[in-house]
Amino acid sequence: MSKILVLAEKPSVGKELARVLGCRKFAEGAIHGDRYIVTWALGHLVTLATPEHYGKEYKSWRLETLPMLPDKMALEVIPATKKQYAVVRSLLKSEEVSSLIIATDAGREGELVARWIIQKAGFKKPIQRLWISSQTDKAIREGFQNLKDGKDYENLYHSAQARAEADWLVGLNVTRALTCKYNAQLSAGRVQTPTLAMIVERENAIRKFTAKEYFNVKADLGTFTVTYRDKNNQTAIFDRQTAETIATAIKNKTFTLSSLTKTNKKTPPPALYDLTELQRDANKQYGFSPKQTLSVMQSLYERHKALTYPRTDSRYLTDDIVPTLYDRVRAVSFGDFTPTAGAILKEKRTIAKSCVNNAKVTDHHAIIPTEQGVNYLNLSDDEKKIYRMVILRFLTCFFEAYEYCSIKASLNCGDYDFTAQGREIINKGWKKVYDVADEEEEEEQTLPSLKEGMTFPCQSVLIKSGKTTPPARYTEATLLSAMENPGAFIEDKKMREFIGSGLGTPATRADIIEKLFSSFYIEKSGKSIVPTAKGIQLIDLVPSDLKEPLLTAKWEQNLEAISKGNAAKKEFIKEIRGYTQSLVKTVVAEDKKYKHDNMTTTPCPVCGKMLLSVNGKKGKMLVCQDRECSYRQNVSLKTGVRCPNCHKTMELFGEGDKRIYICPCGYREKLAAFQKRKESDGSGASKHYVQSYLKNQKKQEPKEEKTAMQLAFEKAMAEKNKKK
Fold first, then answer.
1. Domain spanning 213-269+406-467: which superfamily?
2. Which of 33, 92, 201, 391 is the one with CA 20 to 30 A from 480?
3. Please, what is the end-to-end C-alpha distance for the chain in angstroms?
4. C-alpha 11, offset from chain centre
5. pLDDT digits (tens, 9 = 90+) for 404-453
6. Over the range 529-567, which residues count as b (16 or more CB within 10 Å of their CB) and which as e?
7. Is 36 a catalytic residue?
8. Which CATH number applies to 164-207+473-589: 3.40.640.10, 1.10.460.10, 1.10.1710.10, 1.10.10.10?
């Protein structure tokens, strides 16, 4: 009896599909059943071939070999996962298999994962597509009952293929050109470079900024306070003498209410979450990095089946989801959500009409809870935080708008105009469920009952001074916003309409930010992102149009057109090849210089070149300046351990038994002493916690470091044996 092969993207998803499909016979890299065989990738098993595949001349990095423009892009099996590829290929070639169901993630990259495997293996049998937005048993069963024809997704594959090939052509060529030209580990890409350019531009604006002192004149009228405003409706006065003249003129004088404006306003509930908005809020509320939030979301989606597909760019639902909403409300009716969920069900509340829009949903709808309940106690702390955020946002959308009356009072005192603003709440609406911080509301005061013509004696006058502030540095939250809406960085107003979906996609932005950190182009200062000297120099060295957000936005628009069958992949790649040639020529012709300003006097144990001191996201490191060497060594690790003196977080320096905690205030404590102290007083981090923390840190260290360390050891042993 022939069987249907099901290809999932990850083992965890494959095992869940197999369970629902009744496959119980485990084999290496697959699970067999009577009708189905479920297998899986490990992310990508196949990728575009490296430059070396196209000729021996590309093994060494030289300007003379650029640009690299293969006539046809080849595929190769990723060495680290070749064992699983062999399993999948064998199943694809098996006579027992009559057809294939692609069950990788329902998106552009998920399609690419499967299609590259299919292409490399030479699979020619019928293909169907499983396209689901959640991993619940119900969603899986319904998905298999409504499989799509694989041909319906070929344009999506062509779009994904075009994206990968374009990134290869531009990214690898420009990276090699920059590295060879300036003898430094430099890289560039269609999304990472304009993102870095925005950070550098903001830093330049901050450095050029000159603060100016300004003054506000405020008068206390007993029951409320008023602020001076000039004829341009500005409250800031940039001349102290002018402020003092106004203050003197109104002292002990009478104010007359000249006009009173009351405006009823409504604020609808905030839209449902897409990935970028969720990453942004998680960073603001909990300090989560975008990559951390996505990782937690994937766990809630795949492992716990608590939430729908996370990698979505839509904040809307489709009509067919609406009938399932009460089941989803019941699924989250636990703990402190019970009263709100109960009210929704009892009062038969419907979700806000603004949340349902078929036209604004492409591949996947907004992130909402699934109909399948979850044991809240089984979630990690991070998972609970993200799950709560999504539940609150979801429940909020069943409530009416927040209504209030905005009040603006204008008063005169002689020749001077003053204003006071306040609000009266009419209906808290959705804010009863989810009270989002409202800066305007915080600034406004409660005003007494007022009527035009009323007079008020001035009780006292205050001159409040301040200074203008430079633009704020980006945080990971605000950087995500800038990547999503980079129109402000395009000078030509007519061209802003082409900005499309912004820099990258919701699914790729987190990785781009992480890559900027791991390449040491940016670093953290508190919550703020600061470009390093390396990052600033790179933006000065790369071709100018590669720094523009408009470039990558146009790419995304072209890729979207390809996915819909409105443009040809062949024409897009032809254009990219020509663009690549011009980029390489620009880099080669440049006469600028690159300087390592972070070079130490410590030689690399592998190649002997001087190491560079860098601030990684996890702590301080020494890295080799030579691209081919890639040696890395941790100097210190950031920890969550608090200093007993000033309560700031400390860093852990050294190796083995000599590790020591050091605080910026000067406090120092050996790791062994710290563990003993914490165990004896029963507070803070235990020995088990510290060991677990260090183990996790080791897991997160770059793989290149282990390879380099091993090479260094082998080299040292070889030298030692020679001497013997």
1. Topoisomerase I, domain 3 (2.70.20.10)
2. 391
3. 66
4. 25
5. 999 999 999 999 999 999 989 999 999 988 765 555 565 678 899 999 99
6. bbbbebbbbbbebbbeebbbbbbbbbbbebbbebbeeeb
7. no
8. 1.10.460.10
pLDDT computed for residue 498 by the predictor? 55
In this predicted structure, what is the pLDDT of residue 632? 82
Give pLDDT, residue 599: 78
The SS3 call for residue 426 is strand
Using the structure block, give the residue that is written with the tokens 């539940």: 391
Q: Where are the domains of the chain?
A: 3-146, 164-207+473-589, 213-269+406-467, 275-396, 599-723
Angle subtended by helix axes 509-518 and 290-302, to nearest 10 = 130
Tell me the CATH number of domain 3-146, given options 3.30.70.1070, 3.40.50.140, 3.40.250.10, 3.10.180.10. Answer: 3.40.50.140
| Active-site residue identified among 36, 309, 402, 631 | 309
Report residue 368: phi and psi, to 5°.
-140, 165
- Cα four-point dihedral sign 398, 399, 401, 402: negative
- Residues 6+ away with beta carbon under 8 Å from 619: 634, 635, 636, 637, 638, 651, 652
- In terms of Cα–Cα distance, which of 99, 85, 76, 4 is closest to 41? 85
**Tens of pLDDT, residues 41-57:** 998 999 999 999 999 99
Residue with tokens 């090699």: 176
Query: What pLDDT, on a 0 to 100 scale, did the predictor assign at position 721?
Result: 46
* Predicted local confidence at residue 499, as pLDDT: 59
Q: Count other Cβ atoms within 10 Å, centred on residue 629.
A: 21
Structure tokens belonging to residue 104: 């990788």
Let me know if 156 is exposed, middle or buried by CB neighbors in 10 A (0-12, 13-18, 19+): buried
* Per-residue tokens: 547: 């720094």
Torsion region of 684: left, alpha or beta (phi above 0 gives left; psi -120 to 50 gives alpha): left
pLDDT at residue 492 in the model: 63
The answer to whether the beta carbons of residues 604 and 629 sit under 8 Å apart is yes
- List, in sequence order, every residue forming a beta bridge with 148; answer none if it has no partner: 129
Q: For position 698, what pLDDT does the model report?
A: 47
What is the Cα Rg of the chain in Å? Answer: 30
Q: Which residues of the chain have pLDDT under 50?
A: 684-686, 689, 697-718, 720-724
pTM comes to 0.80
